[in-house]
Amino acid sequence: MIVKHLEAVIDTKDDIDTETWNARRLLLRKDGMGFSMHDTIIKEGTETLIWYRNHVEAVYCIEGEGEIELASGKVYPIRPGMLYALDGHEKHYLRARTQLRMVCVFNPPLTGSEVHDEDGVYPLVEENELEKRC
């Protein structure tokens, strides 16, 4: 059984803080669950280009307001209680009108160190690359 509390993750190597978002990585590949789970803050007034070319993601909003815009131009408002799943690797913009707090689940699971590249993509870290880092 795995038991963690958010307080134990904040200000550790599993608390990734960028210009537009802050992901507190609760479950990672090393935990062996087959997915990773993150408590993520999207910073107020920001826009982030994201494209999970190598992952699928499900996101559940628990706080704040914003929107997700797909490459097709379709815009979906985000507010507490809304879930969206990027099951087709959709390239999108994530915008936060107010600070958003989201629970995010990734498959394949993240290792913990990923940040978006210039295309908004998380790299797919292979097992042998992960072993070299440990």
Task: Describe this entry's structure for a reader.
The protein is mainly beta and 134 residues long. The chain has one domain (6-133): Jelly Rolls (Sandwich). 8% of the residues lie in helices and 43% in strands. The protein has 2 helices and 10 strands; from the N terminus they run αββββββββββα. It has helices at 6-9, 127-133; strands at 15-17, 21-27, 36-42, 47-51, 56-63, 66-70, 75-78, 83-86, 91-96, 100-107. The chain has a 6-stranded antiparallel beta sheet, with no helix packed on it. The longest helix is centred in the C-terminal third of the chain and has 7 residues, at 127-133. The relative contact order is 0.25. Mean pLDDT is 89; it is low at 128-134.
Q: How many helical stretches?
A: 2
CATH domain class name: Mainly Beta
Return the CATH topology: Jelly Rolls
Write out the CATH superfamily name.
Answer: Jelly Rolls
Q: Any chance you could write out the topology, listing elements then pairs?
A:
Blueprint lengths: L5 H4 L5 E3 L3 E7 L8 E7 L4 E5 L4 E8 L2 E5 L4 E4 L4 E4 L4 E6 L3 E8 L19 H7 L1
Antiparallel strand pairs: 1-2, 2-3, 3-10, 4-9, 5-8, 5-10, 6-7, 6-9
Family: Belongs to the ectoine synthase family.
Enzyme class: lyase
Catalytic activity: (2S)-4-acetamido-2-aminobutanoate = L-ectoine + H2O
Summarize this structure as a short list of keywords or feature phrases:
134 residues; mainly beta; Jelly Rolls; six-stranded antiparallel beta sheet; four-stranded antiparallel beta sheet; 2 helices; globular; disordered C terminus; lyase; RmlC-like_jellyroll; L-ectoine synthase; RmlC_Cupin_sf; EC 4.2.1.108
